[in-house]
Specification:
Layout (H helix, E strand, L loop, with lengths): L7 E9 L1 H5 L4 H14 L3 E7 L6 E7 L2 H14 L2 E8 L2 H9 L3
Antiparallel strand pairs: 1-3, 1-4, 2-3
Length: about 100
């Protein structure tokens, strides 16, 4: 169900692929390309972190729709540098509203 309250948030957990590791020195320019693509789809990158563990990066996005997010993800996957896991995210107010509707 699409949100009627404005942009939707997504959390992306990303792992570098073999290609991404081989081209690690180009990471900064790829991140800029990513942010430009997100903006062109009407969204924005809220935060980006390099992390340790089974994932290499965490990014929080705001996108106007699931369709825009899907378009972004497919483009990123086609590039072949990262393998993302996308999680729709709900703020505490929205989550509370959802819980309140459960009988």
């Amino acid at each position: 169900m699409e949100s009627e309250k404005g942009p939707q948030r997504y959390i992306s957990l990303m792992r570098l692929t073999a290609k991404g590791l081989a081209e690690l020195s180009d990471s900064a320019s790829r991140r800029k390309t990513s942010e430009d693509r997100v903006a062109a789809l009407g969204g924005r990158s809220i935060s980006f972190y390099a992390v340790m563990g089974i994932y290499d990066f965490v990014q929080v996005f705001e996108m106007p729709s699931n369709e825009a997010m899907m378009q972004y993800v497919l483009t990123a996957r086609r590039d072949g540098h990262v393998e993302p896991l996308i999680l729709p995210a709900f703020d505490t107010q929205t989550y509370g509203d959802i819980v309140g509707r459960i009988k």
